[in-house]
Amino acid sequence: MDAAPPDDSARHATHRTIEAVWRIESPKLIARLARMLRDVGQAEDLAQDALVAALEHWPRDGVPDNPGAWLMQTAKRRGIDRIRHRDLVDDRHARYGETLEPAAMPAPDDADRLDDDIGDDLLRLVFTACHPVLSTEAQVALTLRMLGGLTTAEIARAFLQPEPTVAQRIVRAKKTLASKQVGFEAPRREDLADRLAAVLGVVYLVFNEGYAATAGEDWMRPALCQDAMRLGRVLAGLLPAEPEVHGLVALMEIQASRIPARTQPDGTPILLLHQNRARWDRLLIGHGLAALDRAHRLGGTDGVYVLQADIAACHARAARPEDTDWARIAALYARLGEVAPSPVIDLNRAVAVSIADGPAVALPLVDALAADGALAGYHPLPAVRGDLLSRLGRHAEAAAAFREAASLTRNAREQAQLETRAAECALKAT
């Protein structure tokens, strides 16, 4: 007698399992296939084929004991079929046929052999997805697709972009890697620092878009933060001796610890000094501080991400806002500005100075940044200026600054908050 088809609840549970397995296994699957085929685009296509096969078979047959091995075996077999049917007389068929001989495939329960060298393959995939021949936008999309296990639709939703735009970006990125004959390899040691900086920058860009969305109705997208932290932890496992990797992990985990306290129930943002610190995730803070300690022990004291994590740690260690060591934070920002000069860092330092030494000391620093013009159109600049002016009792000027900031942001939540502050200042000015 045939087995009864699964009911809707069982099918739904299986689909959720497949989604979870895919997020975990897809980077390893794509990395291994890319090493075999020397083509990231083909590897990603075959991995997607294996996912479709799982969606067809697992609801009916059950989830296999070793789902990762099942996906790998399926992808390899489909790769052989594609190669054989593509061109039987092509010389590459012989090479790939030897490499992907069915008899050499691992059995579904052979987890040990599947994991051989997977760390090296993942590292190659990270650096391939973030290769400098691609634009930053393409690097982000490809990284989330291949290392984050996100679908094109999920990436489009995360960055509030049309799905066809993201899909085209991913397709173009894979074609660019193929046309430029980008090798599936990690950079040479002498090139590692520059390439690693780009990789870390992409991961942190993903995190920041989740932590403080640049546009849309929501101030945060925590799922995107989770994806970035997962990528950071993968990198930390692959490059355990690189202090900046651990610094980035520390920075993201300490910042993410505040997520439960950053909004009111209706989604209205709560600024740092007004957050209920009892709602901060102490487990994440502990993990972040441990990663920061490891970065220090590795000699990364002056790293860009380590310095930022040191700043975040100052907040995490303060039980109350008034316990925060703002003088140290200002000093850390000053050092960060020396290591990686940026007007944004200078603005953040001015905020720390305003709390450590008062708004009157900080306002000239902010006015100088405004006069320089490097931050023109950057809404935090007039927002900070409005806050300083308000604290100095110059409410009419503060209201104008907050209105300017509200006009510049594309995030609806932040815009509403800035407009509220402008209205409050205008009322005080009357």
From TrEMBL:
Instruction: Extract the InterPro entries matched here.
Output: DUF6596, RNA_pol_sigma-70_dom, RNA_pol_sigma70_r2, RNA_pol_sigma70_r4_t2, RNA_pol_sigma_r2, RNA_pol_sigma_r3/r4-like, WH-like_DNA-bd_sf
Q: Where is the RNA polymerase sigma-70 region domain?
A: 27-87
RNA polymerase sigma factor 70 region 4 type domain residues are: 127-177
Start and end residues of each DUF6596 domain: 195-296
Per the UniProt record, the source organism is Novilysobacter selenitireducens
Pfam families associated with the record: DUF6596, Sigma70_r2, Sigma70_r4_2
Q: What is this protein called?
A: RNA polymerase sigma factor
Q: Which domain of life is it from?
A: Bacteria
Entry-linked NCBIfam families: sigma70-ECF
